[in-house]
Amino acid sequence: MFLFGPLLFQGYFLLSSNAILAGGLMPNRDDMLAFQATLPGFLFAAATTALWTGTVALVAGTLSPVVLTRRLGLGASKLGRAGWLIVPLGTLALNQAIDAAFTLSGFGRGDVLEEFLHTLAGARGLMLAAAVLIVGALSAACEELFFRGYVQRRLVARLGPWPGILIASFLFGLAHWDWHHSLFAFAFGVFVGLAAWAADSTWPAIAAHVVNNTVSVVTLVLGVEMSPWIALISGLLIAAFATAWILRKRSRPPALTPAYA
């Protein structure tokens, strides 16, 4: 992690952050920022960042003395069939609750996230399919492979479940490089991190992230909205139920996991 972590964050920031690009670290930054503000530019940046993140996770996992599938948590989930429904449902509910809380409090989504949402809202036809594929599937899967598969599993093995989950979630939030988006990403990371730990598998987190991103893109394009108060209350109730269910499934003491080199 100490070798590949800096590479991940350097690449993530340089490829996806308007703040870094605007700082003059890239040539022709005005042209790059103008291109990134378009839907093709946004999708290109998202795809490039996702591929970089996934590559770092796979290379780091391959170099580990632990077999790759075990190292990245690609084994079968211990949450059972119900987990494939409850974890994504809890993620969607948490997403709606946080967004509603930001709206009702006046905190808002922030300029960066609003710009991303505005750009994605224009997706139609093939561009909508590309947005679902890149934002919904590719970005979600690659981020989970790194943050829950590589980082969290190593931290949990060394520090224990809660420190490992919280630190991995903090790094996940930090990688989004914006107060509003980072706060959401942190809460999101704690929930899917808890699910990945309880399942002893990264697959539930990947599935939940893919479902969340895909539904977010589609509902944004369709203009589907819910009353903030209804979204807040129902979202909190469903997310609380999903969290309690996950914790109950992991109530038995986990088997000792060797520290990863």
Task: Lay out the secondary structure.
Elements: H1 4-16, H2 18-22, H3 29-36, H4 39-63, H5 68-71, H6 80-105, H7 111-120, H8 125-159, H9 161-175, H10 179-199, H11 203-222, H12 228-249
General shape: globular
What distance separates the N and C termini? 9 Å
Number of helices: 12
Number of domains: 1
- The portion of residues forming beta strands comes to under 5%
Structure description:
By secondary structure, the chain is mainly alpha-helical. The protein has one domain. Helix 6 crosses helix 11. The protein is globular and about 45 Å long. The N and C termini lie close together (9 Å). The relative contact order is 0.16. The N terminus is likely disordered.
Brief summary:
This protein is mostly helical.
Describe the structure using short key phrases:
261 residues; mainly alpha; 78% helix
